[in-house]
Amino acid sequence: MRMYQEDGSAAEAPGRGLWVEEPARRRRMPDPVRASAVRAVLIVAVTLTEATITFFLALTGFWLAFPMVLVGIAGTVVATWAVLDVWITRQMWNQRHGVLSGPSSAARDPWPGRIPGNEGRLTAPPLAGGVPASRRTAR
Question: Average pLDDT over the chain, rounded to whole?
Fold first, then answer.
């Protein structure tokens, strides 16, 4: 970015430039979730605008106030549905494309007494070469 001195010659500006790329704080929303969120924001904005106009029409006693109240009720139902759609779409996306889970470094083997079929017994299964039966592979 350049600044100009009184004689018209260019001088470098101190500090940061006008445009500096910074990493995003959060990941971008997936496309279907973002689309439903934009749709919900637009529907809620239109509903709030309609409610404001209805309020002022009701104050003046204009004949259009009553039909607009009915439209406002329908708009509230649609806006609620749109906001729920964002939540449902986000949950669906997380279920279909969620994080890949794997054991962390803090993960440990399950307690040997909790093996299906051994509900009453608290004994561990026999170890073959120091490896639990659940970890052995057939070769």
Answer: 78
Report the pLDDT value the prediction gives residue 22, as an integer from 0 to 100. Answer: 81
Centre a 10 Å sphere on the Cβ of residue 61 and count the other Cβ atoms it contains.
7
- Across residues 3-23, what is the average pLDDT? 68
pTM above 0.85, yes or no: no
3-state secondary structure the chain: CEEECCCCCEEECCCCCCCCCCCCCCCCCCHHHHHHHHHHHHHHHHHHHHHHHHHHHHHHCCCCHHHHHHHHHHHHHHHHHHHHHHHHHHHHHHHHCCCCCCCCCCCCCCCCCCCCCCCCCCCCCCCECCECHHHCCCC
∠ CA(38), CA(40), CA(42), 5° rounding? 70
Q: Which tens digit of pLDDT belongs to each residue from 39-91?
A: 999 999 999 999 999 999 999 999 999 999 999 999 999 999 999 999 999 99
Q: Using alpha carbons only, give the angle 40, 87, 82 rounded to the nearest 5 degrees.
A: 25
CB count within 10 Å of CB 49 equals 11
The identity of residue 25, as a single letter, is: R
